[in-house]
Prior knowledge:
Blueprint: H1 17-30, H2 33-65, H3 72-97, E1 109-110, E2 113-114, H4 117-134, H5 139-158, H6 169-174
Antiparallel strand pairs: 1-2
Helix pairs in contact: 4-5
Amino acid sequence: MPITAFPKDLEVRKLTAAQANAIEKYVKDSGDKSLAKTALIVGIPTLAFTGVAAGTGFLVWHWLKDKELPTFQDVQVAAGEAVSDVIINVGGAVARAAGFEDNPTTPEVVQGSTLTRCTRWAVDATDILGRVQAGNLSKSETIQAALATKRVAKNMKREGCNRPSSISQAQWDEA
């Protein structure tokens, strides 16, 4: 007498006569071709897809291995620059459209001397740098100082002023 082993999670039920006849008829009609046909229908596209995916993955890896990809810090810096540009450019455009000129905070006349706009912008930049160098700014104040420095540099460039020593060359180039 043959012994059959079933996995634990397999449920064995008795088939009705109609179910048994239907299964026997299906197996008899399909013969051995059913298994081969299923293997061809499923197997060939699977093998083709696997080959294409592996080839594409190899090509992408081969192309990327020689590329210098940006680090997470590079992405953060680029995002921060984009946000600061939007704040300064859009804010300045809105103010100018509303009739407000973007002026330096340093007054035009200081101790009886009339200062040029470029000098006033340079004094603003020096004041901002002094606050930063004091080292007692909170994180939000540090961000405000960075935005203010960029705003000053953009305005100075727009008005044809020279770079003051309180704005680094990197900050000037970025503005």
